[in-house]
Amino acid sequence: MSNAIVAEGLVKTYGALRALNGLSLEVPEGTVMGLLGPNGAGKTTAVRVLTTLLRPDGGRATVHGLDVVKDAAALKSHIGASGQYAAVDEYLTGFENLEMVGRLYHLGAKRAKARASELLERFDLTDAANRPVKGYSGGMRRRLDLAGALVADPPVLFLDEPTTGLDPRARLGLWDVISELVAGGTTLLLTTQYLEEADRLADQIAVIDHGNVIAKGTADQLKDEIGGERIELIVADEDEWHTAHEVLENYAPGQVHASRATRTLSVGVTGGSAALVEVVGLLTDRGVNLRDVGLRRPTLDDVFLALTGHEAETEAGPKQGESK
């Protein structure tokens, strides 16, 4: 399998700020690469370089076999992009927006109209096709913007936080569309602040911080790297909390994370369900009653926290014009 996107040592600076600090990345054809990272990590800067909107100060990158600097003009017809803010003309109708994009891609009048109709139907916007976009909801604008990125049916697609601000139903709908595109052979580079989104969509995940990739792998590989499974429990009686803490300390070599206020404890273990059964038996022998107990693997939230030192942002991110 060849790589649709290759970045080697990308550097981009804004005065004293080094937005990209030797970033390297490879995305195989027909796969989804999810970029995770805190605000200011360099995700959006990387996307802008790879889509020819920014010229790197160092390093090189190719997309679909074309150099993002030397072949920038030719590359534009091979990629589609949707940014954090819907790039639509609110004074045109939804149909007119998509038809205009088709003409800019030199599809021809007939094909541009046909493609606009196809995409409006695909994104459930047919009923609003002839209404000015200024009357669209935020979710409708996001769907129209993504439709615009698909007008030329590009083999490589860049989506920069495409579902930020959408309600859960609209987000799930876009996930289905994205899954269909990838099943059809499209290569996708996706930046997101929703870790569930990366877990659901991405074949590979790259965690970026301070302009560089600090970890890369499948969701399961990244989860395994930070410690495997954990037993989590809630003690029914506060008086038994100390005993439960002692049992877990003696059972597992790792640190016990505990909160007496909520009567919760957790510790990393090996052995899966067998370890859970053994711990419950030890607690029962010591007379500890449990309100709840379970075994869980790390989430991508845990991965993000372990790698970057803080939790992922869950809001829409920085205001327009701020560095990403």
Task: Report a brief summary of the structure.
Pfam families: ABC_tran (PF00005), DrrA1-3_C (PF13732). The chain is of the alpha/beta class and 324 residues long. It has helices at 43-50, 72-75, 94-104, 109-122, 138-149, 168-183, 195-201, 219-225, 241-251, 273-285, 300-308; strands at residues 3-14, 17-28, 32-36, 58-63, 66-67, 79-82, 156-160, 187-191, 204-209, 212-217, 229-235, 257-259, 264-269, 290-296.
Please outline the helices and strands.
Elements lengths: L2 E12 L2 E12 L3 E5 L6 H8 L7 E6 L2 E2 L4 H4 L3 E4 L11 H11 L4 H14 L15 H12 L6 E5 L7 H16 L3 E5 L3 H7 L2 E6 L2 E6 L1 H7 L3 E7 L5 H11 L5 E3 L4 E6 L3 H13 L4 E7 L3 H9 L16
Parallel strand pairs: 3-8, 3-9, 6-7, 7-8
Antiparallel strand pairs: 1-2, 1-4, 4-5, 9-10, 11-13, 11-14, 12-13
Helix pairs in contact: 3-4
Subcellular location: Cell membrane
Keywords: Antibiotic resistance, ATP-binding, Cell membrane, Membrane, Nucleotide-binding, Translocase, Transport
Organism: Lolliginicoccus lacisalsi
Order of helices and strands: EEEHEEHEHHHEHEHEEHEHEEHEH
**Shape descriptor:** elongated
Quickly count the domains.
Answer: 2
Strand content: 25-35%
Tell me the major beta sheet.
6 strands, mixed
CATH top level assignment of the largest domain: Alpha Beta
> How many helical elements?
11
Number of strands: 14
N- to C-terminal separation? 31 Å
Mean pLDDT rating: 88
| Helix content bin | 25-40%
The side-by-side strand order for the widest beta sheet comes to 6-7-8-3-9-10
Q: Please give the radius of gyration in angstroms.
A: 24 Å
CATH superfamily of the largest domain: P-loop containing nucleotide triphosphate hydrolases
